[in-house]
């Protein structure tokens, strides 16, 4: 099965169009506060509409994802509805009840945890009904997680994030065995500024 690829932190029509044309499965729009990639829900809605048009032109479906962190469930649902996304990526210490509410409101959920947090939860018997994404401790920082932190990789489909780039994505997936990857920093020329060539290179390398 082909590796699932998400390009995150998009904030311009050019980067959206490039990611869709290069074959991304999902696009991420950061609605979390205090990131160099933060966009308003209104801006995300424009980009989502643009992306859906590009995906229609390419004859395939592309998943639109809002990335949030440490925000109240009511605010998240309202922002996600305004942005017109399919899925919410919960990237903080949100309670399971928040994920339940978003699912009940019709959104897909991606549950993002640091590898350490996941290991601790799993040891306590926790299991997620949602797709799991494992990341470094500080999301969006370009920091990789090591194999030693992933002693207990999830069973089944899971998404690897944290410090991926065109140069390391194939090796990281081979080593850790994820079914999907998510990238932000590794396809940027400077913090928050996407590089169109790196987006294409990343998707090509991920699928190689
Ligand atoms: O990208 C951000 O700024 C961000 C902010 C808040 C929560 C999550 C964020 N991004 C996510 O971080 C990982 C990995 O990013 P990187 O490739 O190491 O820069 C990815 O899942 C993004 O969705």
UniProtKB/TrEMBL annotation:
MF annotations from Gene Ontology: isomerase activity
UniProt enzyme class: isomerase
Name of the coding gene: trpF
Source organism per UniProt: Sinomonas halotolerans
PANTHER family xref list: N-(5'-PHOSPHORIBOSYL)ANTHRANILATE ISOMERASE
Lineage per the UniProt record: Bacteria, Bacillati, Actinomycetota, Actinomycetes, Micrococcales
Name of this chain's protein: N-(5'-phosphoribosyl)anthranilate isomerase
Superkingdom of origin: Bacteria
EC number: 5.3.1.24
UniProt keyword list: Amino-acid biosynthesis, Aromatic amino acid biosynthesis, Isomerase, Tryptophan biosynthesis
